[in-house]
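Practice problem: predict the structure.
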Amino acid sequence: MSENRVFNFAAGPATLPLNVLQKAQADLVNWGGCGISIMEMSHRSKEFLSVIQKAEADLRQLLSIPTDYEVLFLQGGATTQFAAIPLNLCKPEDTVDYVVTGSWGDKAFKEAQKFCKPNLAWSGKSEKFTKIPDFGEIKQDPNANYLHICANETIHGVEFKDYPTPIGKDTVLVADMSSNFCSKPVDVSKFGLIYAGAQKNVGPSGVTIVIVRKDLLGNAQPVTPVMLDYKIHADNKSLYNTPPCFPIYMCGLVFEDLLNQGGLEEIERKNAEKARILYETIDESGGFYRCPVEKSVRSHMNVPFTLEKSELEAEFIKEAAAQGMVQLKGHRSVGGMRASIYNAMPLEGIQKLVAFMKGFQAKHA
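Answer:
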């Protein structure tokens, strides 16, 4: 780690690979020798077309995306997709199923109520969002247009390790993968639609990626704003209007870096090891640190934990920051601590954090 860099455990925008930042820095003023910055470049230019086309090609390679799926680079964050998905995939009278395993699934469910008839197929709210349901517990409607899940809940730290199969003949699986996108291999063919805000695992804020099966396009509700119509964006190769050029460029650099590391199988292995080290430190602390999430569904991306002595939390955060580890405060809605350990968090950062945690415990136990 560069001497002036800290370990950034923020949930998003989040840490990016240092080599990617350095590459962007080197290219910033004069991209590819063309005499202008990527931030000054027309999105209609052949130079930018090469950027967005390579970003898409590398993402398709990373996730083995089938040819019958579109890849869209959009704006508005995953939160905008909470509205765009029902507007594109169903009519106002249609039923859809939502599995709510945390705050983001809950927000998606509530937004869908404006555009269709969502069924709350399962909710973990009564257990404070600390588990994922057994798939038999999900009360699916066989006539639902889609079954929606949040693959990884950033705030509560629960992650699907496998995915439910819709019971309806025409029901498709839809997943918000914002906080574990490209952290492991995924069989895209199991899904009708995958969406992800880039600012957690694959880039800076400003671009949202949607992977959608082509046969689902073209049926948007008449009231759908043009900027939320997936077919418009697919027909225009994500260039209907000026896209977030610099974030797309940064995502492309990240995709290239992930491929150079050996692809998502290798990334998954690294992420599992980082998570193991941190969770073991929590579990072996004798209760000084506690993670409320059921062990089998603990997130490899977002690790929430509390201190037995909650009055020490502010001191923990302050001392960690003084030692070059920042953004460890938990989400305002749940409190405690949260370490977000996305792809770009190096093993060195986890090792430093657990050493600090053990030292802090020794001082205060």
